[in-house]
Amino acid sequence: MFEHDPTKYLDKYMEDKVAITEEEDSTHASDLHLILGNFPPVSNEGDSRPTEPGEYELSDFEVKFNFAELDPDEFLLDNTKKEFIKYLFKNTDEIDPEIKPKISATLLISEAKAPRVDTGDEDDDMEKILEQKMYDPTSPNRARELMEFKFKNKYSDGEIDLSKLPQHGVKVIFNPDAAVGGNFDPDSRKIFLRGDITNLETLLVLLHEVGHVAALSSMGDEQVARFFKLKGNISRAIFEGGGEATNEDAAFFIQAERDAWAFALKQIKKLFVTRDERIVHADIIEVVNKFIHEYTLRKNSESVRKALDPDFNGLTSEFLAEKGLTREELKQIIYESIQGEEPEERK
Questions:
Q1: Which residue stretches of the chain are H helix?
Q2: Of 72, 251, 277, 317, which is the most exposed, with the fewest CB atoms less than 10 Å away?
Q3: Nearest Cα to 185, choosing from 110, 298, 104, 118?
Q4: Model-level pTM?
């Protein structure tokens, strides 16, 4: 799978640790987000960015997008969190295979609809989040399927058209207020996207997720199964504790992320080459490069280091320790808040 053995691959491609403070790191990330989030700029200062479907001119670019309402058959749209949470406490191996992808997709919408709450009272925050419903069809910011999406440079032939990208039956679900960024969910065969539909950061994240889809589509069934197994090993190690993931798991994960970002970068560069092959907005391309290497890939490398560290207890344990809770206590709080009853024991 690798040109080198996994250990040498990690030595070569893991992003270096950066010796800066957490505050400096946060400021750097914010600067990158700010630049990409405001490009291309709106035509007139003070104008808001377009959110309704249509065609728009933004600086040197033309953007066109259109949505469709979600298909209820692909989600548990009629279920409240109270009903949905029952699934989460069951052994997922016992859940109807036809329901599992709907659970996965609905969970991501649920996270999208739960706002970032900070009242200063942790118990109150949790109550407010848990009161949120899965999906509100009346909300202007509801999740919808992205049916058409074109991004074009007016002065070149450079265009990114969602319909011409390798989708392989994968749908794109867009929610501007999602709590989670770009995510490709293989169970439901959906890409979940958040942010501003007309800025470069959202486009870049979409292309990254499409890069994952493109890579998987070129694999055989056995390779695809191995991909998700190894990715699962890394995810479990990050959330449940390090030391279980192997160098091969880590190298596979790093390679998959690098390949997906390489795909995104190749696509996005098409927007910045004129018909006479001049590069325009070279400063923005440099920001894109920094965003990929100094932010996303470095964060991935930090996660991999944790996954390989036997002394790392996992993000879940860190959260529980911060709240002074055990797993069972947290489970009980969630159930009591939603149902007012004790959860059934796991089988």
A1: 6-13, 22-37, 81-88, 100-113, 122-130, 200-217, 221-240, 247-268, 282-290, 297-308, 315-323, 327-338
A2: 277
A3: 104
A4: 0.84
SS3 95: coil
Both 113 and 53 in one domain: the answer is yes
**What pLDDT, in 10s, does the model give residues 226-267?**
777 877 788 888 888 877 788 988 898 899 899 999 999 999
Question: What confidence score (pLDDT) does residue 66 get?
Answer: 97
Q: What is the pLDDT of residue 343?
A: 47
Angstrom distance (rounded) from CA 149 to CA 135? 23
Q: Tell me if 202 is assigned to some domain.
A: yes
Residue 319 in any domain: the answer is no
269 or 25, greater pLDDT: 269
Q: Is residue 320 part of a domain?
A: no
Residues 90 and 235 in one domain: no
pLDDT of 173 reads: 94
Q: What is the extent of the structural domain holding 5? A: 1-37+220-312
What residues contact residue 299 under an 8 Å CB cut-off, 6+ apart? none
Same domain for 143 and 203? yes
Same domain, yes or no: 245 and 172: no
153 SS3 class: strand
pLDDT at 64: 97
Q: What is the pLDDT of residues 83-114, one digit of tens each?
A: 666 666 655 566 677 777 887 787 777 665 55
CA distances from 346 to 92, 94, 176, 261, 317 (A): 10, 11, 35, 39, 20
